[in-house]
């Protein structure tokens, strides 16, 4: 898909973007993916739509499905994608449902690992930061159960990986461990997956202030890492990765974001080519 693209594959198709939360990479990459395949894009956001007049999610989805061939939905409510799918007359893609899941991010994350390392099997994947609210790590942990990997979790106790995700991983037979510090986890890690502490998920600024900056990846910390470890991040970052790390050959997070466009091109082609 990266090197051999039919620019007319989805000519005449329309993709609807419904984003009730801010987005740069997911919304931008879906729009770019659709346009690179020859299709069109229409957008609906919370601020300028009839959501301001009280229109329900279900009714908005019904309307967008009447205009589009597929809909991409991001919404702050956990389970919103499942709710929307019950009324959607067209394919609906979950672009993030609150603190629940982010399936296409997990797909692009695995794609990134394969592109950068060559395989997924046999690796130690360490997830760091706000694992409680981080929908990206929830989806990635579930997807990685299809491979032979070891998972390590590093987070404050109050922001640990949800028990239902850990139970899912356990039932799949994967090894998973909780490490108390980034310093202890880095030396055994092949894929370091950093995440931000999500300010918007906290009930007060005081609670957020207690947690922000608890894990910061610096060049000094990277002296403990394997020479072929890769550093990933779903972005945006706040301060959890020092900008001094950007020049390290192991930092792949900006390429990771670009891979997202190619992955979503493949996904849209699969969903819409014969629709």
Write the layout of secondary structure elements.
Blueprint: E1 14-19, H1 25-36, E2 40-45, H2 57-67, E3 70-75, H3 80-85, E4 92-97, H4 103-117, E5 124-128, H5 135-143, E6 150-154, H6 163-171, E7 175-178, H7 182-185, E8 191-194, H8 205-211, H9 219-222, E9 230-232, H10 253-272
Parallel strand pairs: 1-2, 1-3, 3-4, 5-6, 5-8, 6-7, 8-9
Helix pairs in contact: 1-10, 4-5, 4-10
Radius of gyration: 19 Å
What can be said about the biggest beta sheet? 5 strands, parallel
Helix content: 25-40%
Order of helices and strands: EHEHEHEHEHEHEHEHHEH
- Strand numbers in spatial order across the main sheet: 7-6-5-8-9
Structural class: alpha/beta
Q: What sort of overall outline do the alpha carbons produce when their principal axes are compared?
A: globular
Instruction: Count every beta strand, where a strand is a DSSP E run of 2 or more residues.
Output: 9
Would you identify the regions where 5 or more consecutive residues have pLDDT less than 50?
A: none
Average of per-residue pLDDT values: 93
Number of separate helices: 10
Sheet-strand content, in percent, reads: 15-25%
For the record, give the distance between the C-alpha atoms at the N and C termini, rounded to a whole number.
19 Å
């Amino acid at each position: 898909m990266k090197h051999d693209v039919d620019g007319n594959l989805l000519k005449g198709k329309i993709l609807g973007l419904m984003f009730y939360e801010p987005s740069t990479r997911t919304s931008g990459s879906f729009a770019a993916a659709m346009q690179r395949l020859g299709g069109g894009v229409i957008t609906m956001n919370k601020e300028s739509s009839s959501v301001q007049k009280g229109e329900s999610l279900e009714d908005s989805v019904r309307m967008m499905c009447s205009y589009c061939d597929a809909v991409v939905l991001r919404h702050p409510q956990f389970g919103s994608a499942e709710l929307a799918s019950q009324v959607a007359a067209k394919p609906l893609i979950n672009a993030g449902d609150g603190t629940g899941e982010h399936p296409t991010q997990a797909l692009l994350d695995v794609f990134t690992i394969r592109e950068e390392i060559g395989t997924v099997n046999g690796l130690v994947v360490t997830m760091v930061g706000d694992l409680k609210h981080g929908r990206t790590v929830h989806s990635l942990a579930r997807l990685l159960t299809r491979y032979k990997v070891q998972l390590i979790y590093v987070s404050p106790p109050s922001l640990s990986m949800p028990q239902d995700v850990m139970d899912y991983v356990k039932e799949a037979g994967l090894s998973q461990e909780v490490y108390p510090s980034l310093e202890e986890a880095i030396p055994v890690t092949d894929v370091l997956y950093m995440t931000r502490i999500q300010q918007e998920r906290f009930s007060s600024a005081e609670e957020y202030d207690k947690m922000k900056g608890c894990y910061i990846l610096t060049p000094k910390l990277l002296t403990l890492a394997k020479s072929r470890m890769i550093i990933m991040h779903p972005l945006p970052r706040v301060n959890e990765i020092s900008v001094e790390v950007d020049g390290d050959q192991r930092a792949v997070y900006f390429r990771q974001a670009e891979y997202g466009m190619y992955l979503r091109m493949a996904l849209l082609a699969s969903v819409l080519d014969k629709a």
